Amino acid sequence: MDHDHQEVPSDPALRVMALESLLVEKGLVDPAALDALIDTYEHKVGPRNGARVVARAWVDPEYKKRLLSDPTAAIAELGYTGGQGAHMVVVENTTERHNLVVCTLCSCYPWPVLGLPPVWYKSAPYRSRAVIDPRGVLREFGLEIGEDVEIRVWDSTSEMRYLVLPERPAATEHLTEEQLAELVTRDAMIGTGKVSFAGDPA
Amino acid sequence: MNGVHDLGGMHGMGPIAPEPNEPVFHERWEARAYALNVAAGACRKWNIDTGRHSRERIPPAEYLHMSYYEKWLAGLVMLLEESGLVTRAELESSRPAPGTAKAVPALAADQVAPMIARGRSFMRPVNRPPHFALGQHVRARKINPTGHTRLPRYARGNVGVIDRLHGGHVFPDSNAHFRGENPQHLYSVRFSARELWGSTAAARDAVYLDLWEDYLEPA
Question: Is the CB of B9 less than 8 angstroms away from the CB of A13?
Fold first, then answer.
């Protein structure tokens, strides 16, 4: 039982509930549309999409060429299109170069391939430090990047959205495209992680 | 505006705290706040830049204190009231003003999937050639607009190199304030880490920003 007797609710849960009921009563929003929006990003659109793009690029050199030269169209080939992904750029990690994506001004993130961003990505510590101290940030994620490797930080200041194409781990030649996609993490596609392969089960 | 949202390069914000197996939404109200923003946005009374600017206008101390979806909620309340979709009295009572006609929701459930799949393009034709060329040195202008801008403070006054041409794009600084889309050429500009942060930065590292023509001058 709630013993809070404030007249104006300060709890965001209560405020959101009150706002939703007002907007529904005014006929401005349809609660079923809200359910459909939530279901889309909880169950349908997420980093598994991006992982399939990466795995395809690893196994198909022609696809990889298209992905780097015309990313929005190449990603649409796999069926991933739409809001916060209408203008895509794919940046490739190599032995000489590591890419890291941030939005210092808000929370821009490629929704069709990665879903909605995690809390740390849109929080002040990451947004403030990724541009001035990318090596320190990466160390916090457990990545030590050699001095001989160039770090490129992409600050998402426009409607262009960035996806990192991580390096394919060694000794994965025998894996299928689906198995490769399983290895690809969300962080590897932001640039705060690398893809690793622990080896086949014994 | 030189707001606290312009976080790039600030110190003292604490450690990054990744959460293992983080859910998409931590609580149901976050999901509802997110969806209310998208659904109310479909009324087309504001645009994506207006939306960003609403959150930038949250007072700085509150901005840093609020969780992400609390900011979305605060921004949405501002937009609803400023656009006239909802009155202050309605927000306070959580009831429609007596006698108001009921609207038809701009976004019905069966329109959600097509709307998401369709997305929205921000590219526009620009009837003049790009002012800057690939490889050209440019300086990010030293400007301090009090309205919305996507030129972060840490880049202003610094020299970079044009790395890509992205074509004509809607200009957020005017669009956010309903002063028109004013489309102009958008460039990816490479700034060396040393240009931005000084000699202690790693020699090879660089930061790339997408900058509109009005943000740039020849260097």
Answer: no
Q: What share of chain B is helix, strand, coil (3-state, %, to 5)?
A: 35, 15, 50
What is the helix (H) or strand (E) element at residue B176, kind and residue range?
none
pLDDT at A200 over 80: no
Distance from CA of A58 to the nearest CA of B (A): 25
Report the distance separating Cα B135 and Cα B189, nearest Å.
9
Q: Is A98 helix (H, G, I), strand (E, B) or coil?
A: strand
Do residues A133 and A126 make contact, with C-beta atoms less than 8 angstroms apart? no
User: Are the beta carbons of A29 and B210 separated by less than 8 Å?
Assistant: no
The helix/strand count (H/E) of chain A reads as: 10, 4
Mean pLDDT of B14-39: 96
Select from A37, A151, A160 the Cβ nearest to the Cβ of B210: A160
Q: Judge: domain A46-190, CATH 3.60.140.10.
A: no
pLDDT score recorded for residue A1: 41
Domains in chain B and their CATH numbers? 28-118 (1.10.472.20), 137-218 (2.30.30.50)
Residues with Cβ within 8 Å of A10's Cβ and at least 6 positions away in sequence, in order, are: none
Q: What ipTM was reported for this prediction?
A: 0.97
In chain B, residues 105-124 whose CB comes closer than 8 Å to chain A: 105-109, 111-113, 115-123
Structural tokens at position B188: 């990816």
Chain A nearest CA to B157, separation (Å): 16
Q: What is the mean pLDDT of residues B170-195?
A: 98
B28 neighbourhood in chain A, CB within 8 Å? 13
**In the predicted structure, residue B10 carries a pLDDT above the cut 90:** yes
**CB–CB contact B31 A124 (8 Å):** no
pLDDT of the residue at A88: 98
Instruction: Delimit the CATH 3.90.330.10 region(s) of chain A.
Output: 46-190
Burial class (CB in 10 A: 0-12, 13-18, 19+), A97: middle
Q: Is the pLDDT of residue A4 over 60?
A: no
Give the global pTM.
0.96
